[in-house]
Amino acid sequence: MPASHRTSGSTARDDYLEQILHLIEEKGYARPIDISKKLNISQASVTNMLQRLDAEGLVKHEKYRGTILTDKGLNIAKAIIDRHETLTRFLQLFEIDTNTIYRDVEGMEHHISRSTLEALRAVTDHLQHHPETLRQVKERLPE
Amino acid sequence: MPASHRTSGSTARDDYLEQILHLIEEKGYARPIDISKKLNISQASVTNMLQRLDAEGLVKHEKYRGTILTDKGLNIAKAIIDRHETLTRFLQLFEIDTNTIYRDVEGMEHHISRSTLEALRAVTDHLQHHPETLRQVKERLPE
Ligand SMILES: [Mn+2]
Ligand SMILES: [Mn+2]
């Protein structure tokens, strides 16, 4: 499959862009120390990855301010967050506990193609609009 | 979440048990050389992992024959294959190409909890029994 049909560049890159966008939305910028805390990764590794993302044209470092996303980086980060939210929305239909949902989504999200994401989005949207169908689906669950 | 609620021990362990069961179904036993070819892993690594699986009581090595699964190993291998087939069956509803399905399933399968697996199974079973609903869901797909 062409790389462009995957929704994930790499797990690490996805997780960085996701957290950088969350931090920017929270504070306007992302400092290496905050990224390091969010991802539970050493500041040295964060600095390293930020240089790679900078070389790929995805982030810019502004002195005295922190890291911001380029337009290209922002588009990728938004797609990553949309994917996370779509998977979460699907699992929330089934009253799965919040921690399990978070862990499953964080694991699965890096491994799904655009086609799989769109299939899950279509199913989720349909079930959200058809509560009776959702009820019938849930009758098939064990216990 | 308790480890028992995950469907995956570890990615490597899952992949070994899955391929060992496939080989046993094909030939009656699994030889290290065949496992090594299926998983594209060196024979030395295979020998190593087989010793770990043996220590965990999941496989037994029989001289002049090869590796067979214990009852415990067989149950786990069957659950791994059931999970692979359920995910595949879900994606096949959406006419996603075979390679993409295989790649997504191989990636996702190690990251889903029992609850997520059961939700996907319920959705898949329902859609297989309700073609009109499936048609409506597919109308939501892009292009
Ligand atoms: Mn995520
Ligand atoms: Mn598999």
From TrEMBL, chains A, B:
Molecular function terms, GO-annotated: DNA binding; DNA-binding transcription factor activity; protein dimerization activity; transition metal ion binding
Keyword terms of this UniProt record: DNA-binding, Transcription, Transcription regulation
SUPFAM superfamilies, alphabetized: Winged helix' DNA-binding domain
Highest taxon, organism lineage: Bacteria
InterPro entries membership: DtxR_MntR_Metal-Reg, Fe_dep_repressor, Fe_dep_repressor_sf, HTH_DTXR, Iron_dep_repressor, WH-like_DNA-bd_sf, WH_DNA-bd_sf
Domain HTH dtxR-type: 1-70
Stated role: In the presence of manganese, represses expression of mntH and mntS. Up-regulates expression of mntP.
Family: Belongs to the DtxR/MntR family.
Full protein name: Transcriptional regulator MntR
Origin species: Oceaniferula marina
Gene that this sequence comes from: mntR
